[in-house]
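Re: the multi-chain job from yesterday

Posting the exact lines I submitted so nobody has to dig through the queue logs.
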Amino acid sequence: MTLNRRDFLKVSAGTSGSLVLALSLPGCSGIQTGFREEEGAWKPDAWLELTTDNKVYFTLARVEMGQGTYTGLTTLIAEELEVDPAAITPKFAPVAPEYRNPLYKLQLTGGSTSIATSWMPLRQAGAEAREMLILAAARVWQVDHSECTAFEGHVRHPNGVDALPYGKLVSLASSETIGHDVSLKPQSEWRYIGKARGRLDARAKSTGTAEYGIDIELPGMVYAVVTRPPRYGARVRSFNSSDIEAMPGVLSVLEIERGVAIVAGKYWQARKAQQELKVEWDNADALGVSTSDVFANYHKAADDDAGARERDDGDFAGAAAGAERILEASYEQPYLAHATLEPMNATAWYHGDSMEVWAPTQAPDLGRIAAARVSDLSPDDISINTTFLGGGFGRRLTQDYIEEAAAVAYSLKTPVKVIWSREEDTRHDLYRPAMLHRMKASISGGEVTGWHHQVVGPQILDWYVRNAAPAQYPWSPKFLYDTLGKVGLMAEGIATPKDISAIEGAIDYPYKVANVEVRHTRTDPGVPVTWWRSVGYSHNGFAAETFMDELAHETGKDPYEFRRALIAHQPRHREVLDRVAAMSGWETPAPSGRARGVALFQSFGTYVAQVVEASIENDGIHVHRVWCAVDCGQVVNPEIVRDQIEGGIIFGLTAALHGEITLQEGEIQQSNFHDYPLMRNYELPEIAVDIVDSDETPTGVGEPGVPPVIPALGNALFALTGERQRKLPLKAAT
Amino acid sequence: MALSLTVNGEKRTLEVDGDTPLLWVIRDELGLKGTKFGCGAGLCGACTVHLDGQPVRSCSTPVDLVSGRSVTTIEGLASGDELHPLQKAWVEHGVPQCGYCQSGQIMTAANLLEHNPAANRDDIVAALSGNLCRCGTYSKIIAAVESVASQDPVDREGA
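And the result, structure tokens for all chains:
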């Protein structure tokens, strides 16, 4: 097959390492490929750019928010291109169809999918560019291309002596066509994958030179702060505009959809003016619930509606009817904030017929929709410049901060940066939903015969479709945005998979129990929610793995042996479970005054088992040690895998020990790190991570470290105190 | 008001409201973006700089208190192209994830080692517990600082 490099290639793995290439429609491709004489640069595809002066640029289509795409994805393409990853300069991608995440059909970074979805396409892109460079060199030397090899940015002559650097070949290579299958390198020849250490962004991030959204500086730029309603859904009725306009440095005070924006020459002038702003809110449609109402309503909903049956193996009702015993428990988890250390911010510049936005966003194509909605532009008129992200964790999938900057910029016609305070960031987040879980198990003859899990709470996509639907259908007229969002048809089962955000980790209950029923009672209290690192797994993991622990104790079994006996049919689960038991010395007693708990959980295709060792001292929970075994398939960068799992453990422990957002009559009660604390250095346990050697396809590591540590800690506290805690966060005294 | 201060060894004179936090002066008036805004309340440490050799939270330090004094930011830590030993250790250990807190972490650690070159693990943890990291890089932070702390053990018992 002959390939035209201007076509957009869709690549999938064929047998024995060769590749099957399939052409798909180029769509409204924004990326021009080919050789540009005037710039001395060749773009073989949407990702790579090689220059005549031997530079290699790589367009990074998955944003870098700490999870390591900057290093990991660069490593993938470097391996096949035969260039040291450190010699490649990554650039953040503009919005273009080529850069969409194939799983979501949107250009978003989330779901621990970056390595998994890039594993084949990026290596293939690297291999094809390498092959074209080899063909070019072979043509220069008049030798058989199959006898030439590539190494460290050069093509080597069959004589083993002569070599040409890529820079000398790019012009020629651009007109080569590949008339044969291009093979990916066998694993035995990998130089970087599985071996790479360190991070390509470490130097910039250790010298203060990495540029985050908040660091953007533009000529004539002004600053805006936005006062949003204390109760979600309230609208501005009136405000003391003229008082504020008279304050030092204030340039403009304007009402936008999301509140009142104050624009000033300097950030601090805007903040000071904001202290004097008095807004009267119209609370007719405002949220009015308190946390206690949320849970009371969840319990009522659970009583009234058994919920949609999301999994039904065997006959739970029958098993329960004939059981010797039924064990029941319900678990509650609070709302949680993301608390990225870089608060929400965005900078926008409206030029009349176009707008440019700079922002730390996980979904730049959705950022365009948000900016289009509040201006007279269409998404194609808006460009989004993505920066480094000071944390994401799902928060930056929602584009409210871009919407604000765009709305102010549209009105002002000068570049404007909107910065949220920490208090605003905490109070105007979209939260990990509060959830209720009702668990039931039937027990006969000392064995679990049935498992019933009723998940009670909202579905995240209901909150997300407003931006997502138009981004998938950019041809849709703007007046349809709200309709598309409300209908949500595009997002429900048609264009994207069914939303399992509430039930993931519940429907895939892995243990060998004959009768399993999982239901979702869908009820939404109206509190804004979104994805939060590990999403549904974060709460279903706590419910399922705590209840498993309850069942172990109820049937008089060791919690590790109990799980092990029920997971024999799942070798990857069992391997990580056995490993963590060995690592932690599960068979030997914990040191005096401490106890251990175990949990086993698969999420995002990755298998994780953890043991936590904890004590209660001076009225506080002390987490001393965490052991973790992880199977994420093939590993691109072992150090980053370890970092992500360890970071996930700390993220999970932060939730287990400290995390709680509460509402009082519609208002969020927390504001900053004194009342929404994050784990600090002195609380750090000793963490050991063991990674399983695997030939399986790579799976995600950004999130899977989070879910099991929460039940593992709770289970350790039960072993310590004999008191079962079924509500998060965990307490030292119950 | 006009005020003068020395930043990274260079004398700077500015026209700025005296109650403006030093953080925003450093970032927006002087264009040194390496010092970060995290909480505005001295709770997270992302904005840590050295003021006359002592670590301070620049988000909660009004600039008029800094008049005539000397400030060092992350940009002033290296000597020319030669990174500070802690910055080198940060790169070698691959400490940063999102990286947003790391300027503050490094500035706090640099001050610790200046006053206690042989800091042990407990000293390091105590000094750095005021600096939050949402990504959870704490163990690598400790390892990186330990690698720079003097290899000669100080006889603490005999001291």
